[in-house]
Amino acid sequence: MLRVEDLSVAYGSVRALDGVSLEVKESGVLHGIIGPNGAGKSTLMDAITGRRKPTRGRVFVDGRDITALSVARRRRLGMSRSFQRTSIFPGLRVGEQLELVASHLGERNLAGIVETLNLAHVYGEIADRIAYGDQRRVDIALALVGRPSLMLLDEPAAGLSTAETTILFEHLAAVVRDRNVTALVVEHDVDAVFRFCDTITALDLGRVLANGAPADVRKDPRVIAAYLGTAA
Amino acid sequence: MGALQSLAADPATRPRSAKTRSASVYMTVAVGGALTVLGLLAPTAIHSPYYLGLLINAILLAISAVSIGFLAHQSGLMMFGAAAFTGSATYLYAIAITQFGWNAMAASAFTLSASTGLSAVIGALIVRARPLPFAMLTLALAQMLRSFVLITDFRPVTGGDDGLPLSFEGAFFDFSQAQLSKPEGFWPVAWLALCGVMALAWVVGRSPIGQVLRAIKVNEERMRFSGFDTYGPRVLAFALAGFMAAVAGLLTGLYTAFASPELLDFSTGGNALVSTLIGGVGTVAGPALGALLYVVGQDRFGATGDLEFLTGLGVVLVIYLFPDGVMGFIRGAVAKPGARDAEAQHGGEHAAS
Fold first, then answer.
1. Is residue B225 less than 8 Å (CB to CB) from chain A?
2. pTM summary value
3. Which ipTM was obtained for this model?
4. What CATH number has the domain spanning A2-231?
5. Any CB–CB contact under 8 A between A42 and chain B?
């Protein structure tokens, strides 16, 4: 499904990503990316989706090297993302923006997305006037339109309460299961990640600390030392 | 999308403006059509050639302002150098007549197609720029073209600082040059051109490409991450704006039978820019109204002998009092309080006016 090989990104002399390699083999998987601030999580998302050009390394989706492709081209090939800071179309109504993207990407089941993400009650509302939690779900809905095979979600629960985060992750798990889409999720809410994700990659200082099942990552001494602490 | 149709039909989820949208379109088309017809009759009501000439000047300025407003509203890009496209169109028309010996119809077709092509090429080079550098690039283009027509080596073609007078034989549609040089003779051409340009801006604004352009304007990155090409539509919008500005330039050539270097000057583009700001960029009609107010104000202020001072004062006051332009103020005053905020947020609805 997704293979990242030796991915490196540098900001001047600072290496935000330093030879990261990871692989998500199966579809329909929720894969969590965790790590402390500055670990390189969002940079990894940017490099995979083409928002930032890697200084080294390659990205493969379904065996195809997409490293040189544009963001829009990657999207049309089935890679979508949401952003750490909600990225919707502020002046447009929720329904209008979803329909705009759906018509462009040939999405036939927009109603299903609206229903799955519980957006029916805000469908006719102007997007920047609805509740923040609803805006986050609009952001995810925009990423879900067009039946992507791979979604990258950057802190989808940022700014949400614990209860809202749980609901959001339940929606995500349902989406991944029902639509057989693979989702990479960067998230600081460790409890939600360990509860809902099928596999997890832990990063620190731009490098992979651990990779595998939640139970294995949670026990990894390097992950505990760098991120989870003794509370884990 | 059957379930979506249910969503759209459900009063709880239906966009609030959907039920009135069709009625709004029909109303706008009906009012626009009626105004187009009524406007043709203006010379029968305004007998003074002076005031008719003043209104024609307002129309020429309005077309440039509509092109600026169109680009600003659809793409968020403000064109400081609209004079590059109006002035170059006048020169292209004059050169086609004087150098190529073409008739007015052929010269006009050449002018509009060449200007649009030029706009597309220039747009392809500069629409990626951020708004302020973009504005300055268009200004630099106008100044560059102005310098170009003044180059001594090109004087036989451009007329240098003397400008390029022209005359054509035959007819532009059914109008001779003698008829077009008179306000009452030129009026129907100018009026229909203004209505046509405004209709074009309105139709494009309501079309799928208009929706794509406004979505790019509010969040270009999300559009790219939604699989859209964000470059092509902006080039298209720029080319359309260039076409509209070229219509104003062509009309100037037809009306004045003269291409002057002043047409490429910053002040020419500045007049259109200020008109756009006075009227407001949120609607198609706003820049046209701004142009009318600007020309009338210039006429009144000029009579006092303090033209520059009063113009500056007036522009500052209008922009201070009406930050969304005069048309934005009118719309806000007319709209119901509940709908006002929604309208202010909703760019697509603005384009409908």
1. yes
2. 0.86
3. 0.88
4. 3.40.50.300
5. no
